[in-house]
Amino acid sequence: MIENREKLILPLLREIRSLIDKSLKVKLNLGDFTMPQTMIIYNLANHGKMKISELSEKMGLTNSTVSGIVDRLEDQGIVFRERSTQDRRVVYVQFTNEHIQKYQDLNDNLDKHFSELLASIPPAQMENIIISLNILKDTLANQQEMNVTTILSK
User: Fold this and answer.
1) Is this structure's pTM higher than 0.70?
2) 93 by DSSP, 3-state: which?
3) Which CATH architecture has domain 2-120?
4) Tens digits of per-residue pLDDT, 37-81?
5) What CA–CA distance (Å, rounded) separates 136 from 142?
6) Dmax over Cα atoms in the chain, in whole Å?
């Protein structure tokens, strides 16, 4: 059984992500937005006006995928695009005036939601979760660095 434990991690991460997604949609009252739309809203609420490329990088998606998601948010009147006056190739995305206030406190609500959610976990278990997640994060970061180094050395 020990040698198969690594096969349990990916399904667990998927299930956790799905549960977090569902929880956020209900708790933050985000309505019928998809999770990628929610992540764009979250990033704009946190950082204000952003380039499509910046949103893409933060979300780990291609520019064209993010552009499609932004299209749907734009159709709903949530965001609008604005071209840079210095470089016409650069496109910024920002909230429309009607939606700035609605999503401005999204980050505070998110922090509060997770604090309430995690408050029921005993401190010793919370410490173990933090340690384990840091190990996973460091392992993934090291693997990514090794991939970049391999690509650059070719």
Assistant:
1) no
2) strand
3) Orthogonal Bundle (1.10)
4) 888 988 898 888 999 999 999 988 999 999 999 999 999 999 999
5) 10
6) 60
